[in-house]
Amino acid sequence: MELVMSFMLLLMSSTMFMKMCLAHISKLGFHAYISVGLLAVFMLSYKFRHNVFQIISFGVIWGIAGVVYSFLEKGLLGNLTYYPSTGNPYQFEATIFATLLSATLLGLAFGTIEALYLHGLFSSMSLARKIAFKTLLYLAIIVLILLIITTIYNATVLDTHILDARVLHHVKLFVSHYAFWSVEAYIAAIIVISLFYLEVSENLGQAVLLNFLTGRYHTPREEERIFMFVDMKSSTTIAEKIGHLKYFDMLKAYFSDLSDPILRHEGEIYQYVGDEVVISWRMRKGLKDAHCVQCFYAMQSALEHQKEEYLKKFGVVPTFKAGLHFGKVTTGEIGVVKKDIIFTGDVLNATARIQSLCNSYNVDILISGTLVNRLDLSGRFKAQSLGESALRGRDEKIALFTISHKQRVAYSFR
């Protein structure tokens, strides 16, 4: 129950904040509701789903932790109907429900804060230091909120001001009790687990982690996928010009700027190979609204948007070329010491060969004729045939196209 009380106190503060936001929106009138609704739809279409996955993950982890705590508590208390340390009444059925609900909601609240506001905090630190500093920060926030709420609560009950000696005495008793700090220690453990899970998700990729957890590719399966091989132009020249350490910093910024457009257009980052990134789509997602083509131009716009920043830091703006193709691959888990989900199939080699021909045709994007025939490019893009070409290591020729905008599209950035 001590855990439930702490959770509920925290939830009271978050609930009050939500009510204030809703009250503010209602004052703005009908147009505000429309704007908020349109914003929600827009966000659901892009990176918002990435954040939602993280937020829900926090809620699930915290909910499970709440249930585990309830069962541990039941094991310690046995048939007792009260808490020996405080004398508060105890009922297992009510406690487990309240703990599950409050822990899940609190997890969702912290997941929202982490995903939308604090995810990039301490990003320059090592994994262990980042998790340690974030855990201390979150604990400090929790303790501060609990102190504020407890002070206001006791002042209200005692019908006096918050600096009254009796109020401060009750607050002191609250924070000096063993139960308070034992709950804080348990919450710290939950925070560490949540943050570690988030870091693993970011390192593996949400899609890969989800596939590992669900066992989707534990048994190899065949599927059709679209692939895009993206290669930085003149990377060797740039590295020699600015130095390899500075070049590596530029690579980090470059891949970071490409990530958002990839997520927005349903892409999955398969792997990084030097300055090359391989992006993959399931057929339905890649073909829908020509996401695989839109992704290319969104990535170009993202780099253009950061042009001044690149010039300021590195003295050069990275550009890239890309090749797109689709085909059948076998997908499955592989490895013993280090597991991974890999694709095998001729389409990977073919896509790499297509991308390598960009310089020969003096274009930034090349796409196979078989993929062009599956895409609906009407209205936004124009496909220009470049004839047929024999790919290195293959006897048969393949039709190649380059893509251009019929009219320039402005991509948004958040």
Automatic annotation (TrEMBL):
GO terms for biological process: cyclic nucleotide biosynthetic process; intracellular signal transduction. Keywords: Membrane, Transmembrane, Transmembrane helix. Gene3D superfamilies: Nucleotide cyclase. SUPFAM superfamilies: Nucleotide cyclase. The chain crosses the membrane at residues 55-72, 92-116, 136-158, 178-198. It comes from the Bacteria. InterPro entries: A/G_cyclase (IPR001054), Adenylyl/Guanylyl_Cyclase_3/4 (IPR050697), Nucleotide_cyclase (IPR029787). GO terms for molecular function: adenylate cyclase activity. Residues 226-355 form the Guanylate cyclase domain. This is Adenylate/guanylate cyclase domain-containing protein. The lineage of its organism: Bacteria, Pseudomonadati, Bacteroidota, Cytophagia, Cytophagales.
